[in-house]
Amino acid sequence: MLAAWVAAVVAVPYGWVLGRVRAYPPSGRGVALFAVDHTWSLVNTIAGAGFLTVNLARGHHLDPPRCCHRGRIDIHEQAMRGYATTLGNVIAGGTAANERHEDLHVRQARLLGPLYLPLVGLNYVLFSVLPVWWLYHDHDGYPITGPGRYFTRGVYLHVWHEAWAYRRDVRDRYGDLPVRRPGRRRPRRAHRHGDHDHYTDDKT
Question: Where exactly are the structural domains of the chain?
Fold first, then answer.
């Protein structure tokens, strides 16, 4: 009984929002995305629906123009101050600047389905207690100055799904130039002409 009540609390707002923002395009692609999100990636979609419900309960607002026919749900406000957050097919705090980054997290969930959240969680735990990333971290550009920075400038930047998204961000911005993703130290060699350092304040 309790499980059914909880499911309704999450499912009803989610279903209403899907129709309200017209999240999926009326095309074969839209049908395929809907099918993946509600079969293979169902666990992620349920998590996203819960995330959506919590944000709506906090008084946050939908962003229909940003998500119409995009295969996702956008919430205007950030769930965590200073960060865009994506869970399943729900994005909170997305902007034009970080849209492709957050969209990649949606696609990662669709690709890995029920494995996605466990793999993300496992990587966070492992990198928190066993910081192998320390060996290749850019300590000059992203100094670790305390416990908070350990997670926001260290663990967070190096977990696999964020590293993947930031690498793509750098490729979008710099193309084939030899630019490292945020947090990744460059090889210890002389700078060649045309090389660039990449520092960012993005927190997505």
Answer: 2-113, 131-204
